Amino acid sequence: MHHDPLSATLFALADPTRRGILARLSSGEATVKELAEPYDMSLAAVSKHIKVLEAAGLVTRGKDAQYRPCRLEPKPLVAVDAWLGDYRRFWERSLDRLAEHLETMKKSSRRRPR
Amino acid sequence: MMPQTMTIEPLSADEPILVMTRTFDAPRELVWTALTTPEHVVAWYGGHGFENPVCEMDVRPGGRWRHVMRTPDGVDVAIDLVFVEVKRPERLVWQHADHGEPRRGGHPTSVMTITLEERGPKTLWKLVTRFASFADRDAALGIGFTHVLAEGVDKLAEVLRRLSAS
């Protein structure tokens, strides 16, 4: 479905349950059962979300045959955040300055009504 | 008064877009003028500490926006853009002039759409950034990678909290 890593990452991040799972995994490994606890959904539904995260390379599963604990793989997230961060900071800075400039413009348009 | 800040909407599952919004305490016509007139654009583009020695805008579909932004370190960044759609005072669409060509560094090739909506005496600014080429985007994502890794896992946890809160 997604031919490049980044769109797979963005797709995986677009769901609140999957973001919640990633947030939980950021504090350490967890089994599917543990990950499912906060959610009012079946283990199968949670497993499906985890499969999407696995496909995006955001989660890997351990080798323990019984539990196969899930682990966060931060690399794809870091890639998204690096670009987002630069872009976001550019616009945050620019818009703060724009807000100030608009105040100046408002004052001068009051002085010089057109 | 609450300080106005920029908001990033949750990432769309269906489209490769990024949506940012901010409200300005100014009428829409004034915001439009500030966005489309070089004498005003040079005042805000890049934010504090940035200068804009070149800003030439031919604000009509197909018109060029030639821009040079100078960073606080004195590095000049040339930005060559082209307007795609101009609907005063509510909609402005532009993209990189080399759209679709392989890029080396800088922002990924994308189409940017600003819409301005009247909110009483205020104006809602909305920027939709639509990625055109995943390959370009990936290339651009490589930049800053080590920088973020250097900031370590705390930074990552913060990202995750933000993502899960959105």
List keywords for this structure.
heterodimer; A: 114 residues; mainly alpha; two-stranded antiparallel ribbon; 5% strand; elongated; B: 166 residues; alpha+beta; eight-stranded antiparallel β-sheet; 8 strands; 37% strand
What does this structure look like?
The complex is a heterodimer of chains A (114) and B (166). Chain A is mainly alpha-helical and 114 residues long. In chain A, 65% of the residues lie in helices and 5% in strands. Chain A has 5 helices and 2 strands; from the N terminus they run ααααββα. Chain A is elongated and about 75 Å long. The termini of chain A are far apart. Chain B has 166 residues and is an alpha+beta fold. Chain B has helices at residues 28-36, 38-44, 134-141, 145-165, and strands at 7-8, 17-24, 51-57, 64-70, 76-87, 91-96, 110-119, 122-131. Chain B has an 8-stranded antiparallel sheet, covered by helices on one side. In chain B, helix 1 packs across helix 2 (38-44). Chain B is globular, with a radius of gyration of 17 Å. Residues 102-107 and 133-156 of chain B have low confidence and may be disordered. Classes of the chains: A mainly alpha (114), B alpha+beta (166).
Average pLDDT reading of chain B: 77
Record the strand order, biggest sheet of chain A. Answer: 1-2
Quantity of strands of chain A, as a count: 2
Question: What oligomeric state do the depicted chains represent?
Answer: heterodimer
Morphology call of chain B:
globular
The proportion of residues forming helix of chain A, as a percent range, comes to 55-70%
Poorly predicted regions of chain B: 102-107, 133-156
Kindly report the greatest chain-chain contact and the residue count on each side.
A-B, 48 and 56 residues
- The SS-based structural class of chain B is alpha+beta
SSE ordering of chain B: EEHHEEEEEEHH
The N- and C-terminal alpha carbons of chain A lie at a distance of 56 Å
The class by helix and strand makeup of chain A works out as: mainly alpha
